[in-house]
Write a structure and sequence with these properties.
It is a single chain. This protein has about 850 residues and is of the alpha+beta class. The chain is built from 20 helices and 33 strands. The strands form eight sheets. Strands 1-8-9-10-11-18-15-14-13 form a nine-stranded antiparallel β-sheet. The longest helix is centred in the middle third of the chain and has 24 residues. The two termini are about 30 Å apart.
Length: about 850
């Protein structure tokens, strides 16, 4: 994790640019990684960073959010309630291909004599640009430049321009622009889509062995080509169309080839030295669950007709304007750290590319950048992605919550199948049905109900959009509260305590346990929110309340029972250790010795049977520590320190969801160096392929988590039930930190330096907040600067596995926890830490 000791990126191949990711050499050895990190997308449509020539590639990928095929899940041993229908994202027909031939010699980058090369993903313009000079086998030098973007202003549109200039002689140039459906059941499709990785890996998508896309339409109209298909099992439909414009002063001819799985527009140019040949390709994708392909074809035509009216230059200008607005509200600026700044902006740009134009769809774990996790949506979206969207792009957050709202009927059906009232949302899904075959580490994660409710309440608190809640989103709170009230139980013998048994928390290395701390704490908040929301609705809008009561058949006393269950929720706590056990039996297990586990056996899930892992105290990802963040007002600082010290050495980091949470809590409890180390491991997880699976797509939750680590962790921001507080921790070596929050319609800029924090309202009128217990009132006319006289207490050392082992006697019984000593050091420039 000591990534920040030096700039970890190869600056010869990837020169430093705070507003772009640049590549100066093509290397076939890591095409999987570079195809992913040079993806362009808008949340609906994604084009992997394959070379335009469309030949060599790890994964030739074009993905549309939610466009999937279904297949029957076959269990070795059946049982009632197991997931029955698998769902996997479909690799859509690839329309970004433009193949080049000079004197009939093809440009194949893995074989070509490339004299110069540069590729640039520009975060400010949203455009992927490439420029190279190729020396043909005949010795002719050819300049090739290309630009590619997926539009943020029109979610169905992509634009590709391809320019060729002969530098020192005349030649014959052939451009073959294609729409290619690789999903035709051939072996080359299976090897291309799923790369070269071998062996079991649940993070990868399932492989299709039969034809997925059934041809329905193939059409040529002037310079426009169109292919349309219907998925074999899911019945989903897709249409892809490409319109072409060639610009050249030289003579040329054009022809078309049209097949079920291939549409080609071929231009043959008698090119002269120094003359530029430019091909502009406008591409449209439309998909649907039930709409006939002919209607989708018409929609593609309308998208392209509109784009032609606007024109290529204006489309690129609109893209820049959209991103200007995005960066004004989302950018996080780190003073004096250009390498970190570049990586931060890359992550925030990927966040936009995964979410901006989902427009009522979900945010997939890999966005639209790859096949990883089958294109599924998880609880990652609500906990890691939605905070960044809620506080910077609330419209996008609202759309993501509407997606969950539309899944409510399926969640009700799933709850009934699992014998509980209310609604139970699936752990992983595309169409609303549970798609995970391994129930212990998936279906048993009931906490997803509370995660969705948490995100909903967070959105309403940050935006004040009570209308969204009252007009239907409140149904989520009611139905999830019903699930918890039915799943949990009151233990008898006078013990008036509410328990929840048989669940799995976020940590997938510990499954089907009783009283998981994270689940209980989050369920308590869910129950409280549902009861409070119904009460406030009855007081503030009796008509809307009456409609909810009628629609959901709310019974008298039901909300009061939720409130009582929340009040009496069992929250495990061990008095000897001063920590919260992850679950009822966790502390009784043997501790896994991670120090003696060879790196070749990580992640553990790929090298050990689940029953081996389940017998030990070992975590795939933060569990209790995540609860300390999401429900931080329910824990004391001393409890946070003790919990972090105990669980951190047990956490493998096998999940990319873990590092950002560990960074935030490490910052809060005073482990400054550890906080920055964890931040770095999350920041570069894809740029450096730290988990060896970036080829499968962007870790979208981690990109959202980067915003969380910066704003929650180092920026010190918290929102607990509408109480906006700040307790910042500027890392050593950082000159400053600047970020923005959209709160109740106000855009507030926060500027943090070593000895002060300043709040400026950029949009809006006024706002109230709290800085380390001090109430602050900010107006548009009067920015407020609050001195930070103390950087805080500095913890000595960091938690180690020896610390955890030291909590036990030789016979295995628990000892009282020894919290690390606190060395009070209030000098400016010291490491960050909490104020006691």
């Amino acid at each position: 994790m000591k990534i920040l000791d030096a700039d970890p990126i190869d600056r010869i191949r990837h020169p430093l640019d705070e507003w772009a990711l640049v590549e100066t050499a093509f290397d076939a050895a890591d095409m999987g990684r570079t195809e992913t990190i040079f993806t362009v997308g808008n949340g609906y449509l994604g084009l992997r960073g394959n070379v335009e020539e469309g030949r060599d590639g790890h994964v030739h990928g074009t993905f549309v959010n939610g466009f999937h095929e279904t297949w029957p899940i076959r269990h070795a041993e059946e049982a009632y309630g197991f997931a029955r229908v698998g769902q996997t994202i479909v690799n859509a027909p690839d329309a970004k291909i433009i193949r080049l031939y000079v004197d009939d010699e093809p440009l194949v980058l893995t074989e070509a004599d490339v004299l110069s090369y540069e590729r640039r993903l520009d975060f400010a313009s949203g455009v992927l640009e490439r420029e190279l000079v190729w020396r043909t086998p005949a010795g002719k030098r050819v300049l090739i430049t290309s630009r590619r973007m997926v539009s943020f202003t029109d979610r169905h549109l992509a634009v590709v321009t391809y320019e060729v200039t002969l530098l020192d002689s005349d030649a014959s140039i052939t451009l073959s622009s294609q729409i290619l459906n690789r999903q035709d059941g051939r072996d080359e499709y299976r090897s291309n889509v799923h790369g070269t990785a071998e062996g079991f890996d649940p993070r990868k998508a399932d492989v299709f062995t039969d034809r997925v896309l059934q041809p329905r339409i193939k059409r040529e109209q002037a310079d426009r080509l169109l292919l349309a298909y219907r998925c074999t099992n899911s019945g989903m439909t897709i249409a892809v169309a490409a319109d072409h414009q060639i610009t050249t002063v030289d003579d040329y001819t054009s022809t078309t080839t049209l097949e079920d799985d291939l549409a080609k527009r071929i231009y043959r140019v008698h090119a002269k030295q120094g003359h530029r040949v430019r091909l502009t390709k406008l591409v449209s994708y439309h998909t649907a669950s039930t709409v006939p392909v002919r209607e989708l074809a018409d929609r593609c035509d309308r998208t392209l007709d509109s784009a032609l009216e606007v024109g290529g230059p204006e489309l690129f200008r609109q893209q820049r304007l959209w991103l200007d607005a995005y960066w004004k509200r989302t950018d996080v600026v780190i003073g004096g750290q250009p390498a970190l700044q570049q990586a931060v902006r890359w992550n925030l740009f990927q966040l936009a590319q995964a979410s901006a134009r989902t427009d009522g769809g979900g945010v997939a774990a890999k966005g639209v950048s790859g096949t990883g996790y089958g294109g599924h949506y998880f609880w990652d979206s609500e906990i890691y992605v939605l905070p960044a969207l809620t506080y910077t792009s609330p419209v996008v957050a609202r759309n993501a919550l509407r997606f969950r709202q539309r899944m409510l009927d399926a969640a009700r059906a799933r709850a009934l199948e699992l014998n509980v009232r209310g609604a139970l949302f699936p752990w992983r899904t595309i169409n609303g049905l549970e798609s995970s075959a391994y129930y212990a580490a998936s279906t048993a994660q009931y906490h997803i109900d509370a995660d969705i409710s948490h995100a909903l309440c967070q959105y309403v608190s940050a935006t004040g959009d009570q209308d969204f809640l009252n007009r239907g989103a409140i149904d989520i709170l009611v139905e999830t509260a019903r699930m918890w009230a039915d799943l949990g139980f009151w233990r008898g013998n006078g013990d008036d305590v509410f328990h929840i048994h048989g669940v799995t928390g976020p940590d997938e290395y510990t499954t089907v346990v009783n009283d998981n701390l994270y689940t209980n704490v989050m369920a308590r908040a869910n129950l409280e929110a549902a009861a409070t929301s119904l009460r406030l609705l009855a007081e503030q809008d009796p008509n809307a309340w009456a409609q909810v009561v009628k629609r959901l058949e709310v019974q008298e006393g039901e909300a009061e029972e939720w409130a009582r269950a929340a009040q009496r929720m069992h929250i495990p706590f061990d008095e000897n250790l001063g920590i919260h056990p992850q679950d009822e039996a966790f502390l009784q297990k043997e501790i896994w010795d991670l120090d003696l586990t060879p790196p070749s056996h990580r992640p553990l899930l790929l090298h050990y049977h689940p029953l081996v892992i389940y017998r030990f105290q070992v975590l795939k990802q933060a569990d209790v520590v995540l609860a300390l963040l999401l429900q931080g007002n329910e824990f004391t600082l001393e409890q946070k320190r003790a919990n972090f010290m105990y669980y951190d050495p047990l956490t493998t980091g096998d999940s990319t969801l873990s590092a950002v949470v560990q960074s935030i809590i490490a910052a809060e409890v005073g482990y400054g160096k550890l906080a920055t180390d964890y931040f770095a491991s999350a920041l570069f997880v894809d740029l450096l392929d730290l988990h060896s699976n970036t080829a499968d797509g962007i870790h979208v939750a981690s990109t959202g988590g980067i915003w969380n680590a910066l704003v929650y962790g180092f920026g010190g921001f918290r929102d607990h039930r509408g109480d906006f507080t700040f307790d910042p921790r500027l890392p050593e070596g950082w000159e400053s930190l600047q970020y923005r929050l959209t709160l109740r319609g106000n855009r507030v800029r926060v500027d943090l330096v070593r000895d002060s924090i300043t709040f400026t309202i950029e949009e809006g009128d006024s706002f109230r907040l709290t800085v380390r217990g001090q109430n602050i009132f900010v107006t548009a006319q009067n920015p407020v600067t609050v001195p930070l006289s103390h950087q805080g207490a500095k913890l000595v050392g960091t938690p180690t596995m020896d610390d955890v082992r030291g909590q036990r006697r030789a016979d295995g019984s628990l000892l009282t926890a020894s919290i690390p000593a606190i060395a009070l050091d209030f000098d400016e420039g010291e490491a960050m830490g909490p104020i006691d």
